[in-house]
Amino acid sequence: MRRFIQGFGRVAALGAVTVLLWSCSDLKKDIPTAVSLQTQVHPAGWGDSTSANFHGKSLKVGQYDATSCQACHSKQYTGGTSDVSCFRCHTSYPHPASSKWSNPADSTYHGAYVKKMGWNLDECASCHGANFTGGTSGQSCYDCHAAYPHGTGWKNPTSSASHGKFVKASNWQLDGCATCHGSGFTGGTSGVSCYTCHVQYPHPTSFSTGHPSAMLNSDFPLAQCQACHGTTYAGGSVVNVSCMTSGCHVDRNGTPKSPEACNTCHGDFSAPASDLASAAPPRSLHGDTLTTVPAVGLHQKHLVGAVNAPNVECAACHVVPTAVGDAGHLGTDLRAEVVFSSALAAQVTANGTFVPNPTYNTTTNQCNNTYCHGNWKADSASSPYAGFYTKSSMDGLNAAPHWTGTSAEAACGTCHGLPPSGHPTGLGVSCYSCHYNSTTMDTRLHMNGKISLTGFGQPERSF
Predict the structure, then answer these.
(1) Which domain range does residue 126 map to?
(2) Which pTM was predicted?
(3) What is the largest CA-CA distance in the chain?
(4) Which residues contact 69 (CB under 8 A, 6 or more apart)?
(5) CB 177 within 8 A of CB 145
(6) Confidence (pLDDT) at 358
(7) Which DSSP state fits 450?
(8) Structural domains of the chain, count
(9) Is the pLDDT of residue 139 over 70?
């Protein structure tokens, strides 16, 4: 009896299992074949960008709040229980929290991401549109930065979409550029320095108040200026701003002049003595105007303000270039070479036997051995006025005045005695009586390499 009951139980259990399996088999028949989790959860067209049910449009309606997606795709959107990662199709969306995605200081900043991708924006275009003005996302990249992503022609000066024309249209405001290229435009989060292509633009902050110094520090890259402002600096195809409209690129009469004009950098050394008050003062390349600065010194006194001698030309002491870029003009030592190329400084006297060797000491700022300051000798043996000599020669004092000194170092009596050594004394007349037939000095005849006895009706004679 017990065996019968046990046998019957086994049969009943088997029957129950059979019924259950048969039921599951029927249930399975109700499930459509090749069905995915996506179509079970999301509506039709969820992955079709042209469908009204496209997931991008759904996110847009929800202000891009993807929190509900996290239930299946995980908080990191890498798969979760659905085992479907959002990044399988687009590697940068969903974006990190706005506080990070929009924060230049965060490692997940979108600028850093784009930089990491080699500035390849194809993925961005899939949501923001081919022209990045919104696309299916409706979010234009230009809502935050007006010039990025850069369009075709950005680097082409002849293109209407060139970055030069864009900056011009923005009235040269570069705040948008600074967002990615840094406040100093040396790279910023983009890692691309604006100075890689043009070394002087964007202009430094000091450019408007002292750009000669900025140009000096950059070795005067005038070709860079011409690239934007034109070969004549009057305005080019990229920038129609003339350099001659600035206050320093005009002469004392307001006439425009080229940035390559000598007095643009060196000051108005050529102003006549009668017009010095209205002239731009002589200055160094750093903008100094004090005569105690060697680059300024006594230039003005020599060029237009000489009292006891004729004015001196620039070429008397320097090699004057014909163009700014001439060799030797813009030297790396930032010092103008004094070469005493004038015949006057090295005037040979004593009938060709006394040859001075003029030099300039850059340490003491002194002129040495120049005829101009008394390095001369007048030989009585070759003079028709031998009776006026008290020894075989009359000699200068060979003064070594300081270039940064005062006019006292060039006063009468400093370059030669009054009268000179070897000249008779106690004649009872002034120097001017015999040498200029006047009561005042004639600067045309003084320090000209000749001895003048005009009061005696004699022609000038060389020493």
Answers:
(1) 55-144
(2) 0.58
(3) 175
(4) 77, 86, 94
(5) no
(6) 94
(7) E
(8) 2
(9) yes
